[in-house]
Design brief:
Blueprint (H helix, E strand, L loop, with lengths): L1 H17 L10 H7 L3 H7 L4 E6 L4 E5 L2 E4 L3 E2 L2 E6 L3 E6 L2 E6 L24
Antiparallel strand pairs: 1-2, 2-3, 4-5, 5-6, 6-7
């Protein structure tokens, strides 16, 4: 019994030190707060943002600005018209808006380039 009390007395101070250690794999809190805007502000400030798409034989859903929606449901004042692997099409009145999952990636046919390099003629 005395041994158990002694071990307990020695380990209690260590518990207090354990709280001070942060998870080394967790991003800094300033990064987390900056990268997760509220749904209302992300819809109004920069428009809706496609965050993920889930397609299965039973259902197809997309997450747009933190809101999970299915075909025909509303995101703000727009209706989800189409959900595909990489994009979602929204209709607001007569306007169609395409949200891309990876907007920075421009898909082209193989061998096509945006502009051909300038040809340099050398005189020898």
């Amino acid at each position: 019994m005395r041994g158990a009390i002694g071990v307990l007395a020695l380990t209690l101070p260590l518990i207090g030190f354990a709280e001070g250690f942060a998870d080394p794999m967790r991003p800094p809190t300033t990064f987390i707060q900056a990268s997760t805007p509220s749904t209302a502000s992300s819809l109004s400030a920069s428009g809706p943002v496609l965050q993920s798409v889930y397609i299965s034989p039973r259902r197809t859903v997309a997450t747009i600005s933190g809101q999970t929606v299915m075909l025909g449901e509303k995101v703000g004042d727009a209706t989800v018209m189409r959900i595909s692997e990489n994009e979602v099409v929204l209709r607001s009145g007569k306007n169609l808006q395409t949200l891309k999952l990876f907007p920075a990636i421009d898909k082209r046919e193989p061998g096509k380039t945006l502009s051909q390099p300038a040809r340099i003629d050398r005189k020898e």
